[in-house]
Specification:
six-stranded mixed sheet; 41% helix; three-stranded mixed sheet; alpha/beta; 15 helices; 365 residues
Amino acid sequence: MGFRMGIVGLPNVGKSTLFNALTRTAAAQAANFPFCTIEPNVGDVAVPDARLEKLAAIAGSKQIIPTRITFVDIAGLVRGASKGEGLGNQFLANIREVDAIAHVLRCFEDDDVTHVEGRIDPAADAETIETELMIADMESIERRLAGIARKIKGGDKEAVAQERMMRKALQALEAGRPARTVQVADDDRKAWEMLQLLTSKPVLYVCNVDEGSAAKGNELSAKVAQMAAKEGAGSVVISARIEEELAQLPSEDAAMFLQEMGLQEAGLDRLIRAGYDLLGLQTYFTVGPKEARAWTITKGTLAPQAAGVIHGDFERGFIRSETIAYADYIAGKGEAGAREAGKFRIEGKTYEVKDGDVLHFLFNA
């Protein structure tokens, strides 16, 4: 399990430049005019994790298989998109298919790059897109309420539950708040998710800054960070131009370039980590002589469901998991050393998998 992150924003904020850098391709055309991205470009990226290489080195694994994240470059939204302006509802449909939204905001001044609204104000840009998504959600809810009216009169329990969730969402939207601000009980989670509301998706604000501000950000990105904190959203500072340059360099040269720029790591690493935090994701590992592999699960996942990420039969026939914490595996220089140190554990169906666990599952076929 990886996750799909949609890259959205107004035209000319650096979305396609960032996508090109992240996926190390030139699939998305980056140009200084609105709507240069007509179809959503999709790119799978290996999630960098230094732990995986260390595990593989100890186990002598022949192959290293990282987990992956899918980026979807969605064409630029504009004011009025919910009414069909620009390329309109086509893009709103693309957003429904992702797990989270990376909202790229322009936090740099450059007279050579036009802004679709003629000013540099990332908070206002964020509001423009949020408003369009909220309008689209309200229209969607109103259509659905009309569509299930007969079922509700007939006492259909599922329709009644959906109506309650829709009314709850509509109340928030009409008050100017996105659907993700609504508190949803665990029992209502399924009905809520079936609504597929655009503004219920977690948002990560990506501050695209100039090269000189890549290390510490600037006044514009600081304002975005304040806005994100107030909303309970995430934020990360990236220079799309630097990421684009890094994408073209060999790994050794890239490391030197990062050092010269005063950066500890590439923006890709920060973006993925922020995305994982946003969605409550974590990684566990399976390690052996054939391969060392990373798997993505949500925090709180129990061992049988973690096994099911590998194959459904593993979950259905789950017996137990042989478990070693990452730090213990490294300290013991492998499974044998971890056993000798008493760090090898047998866990059952109620075990909550921890980030970095090295697991081996036993199951009935």
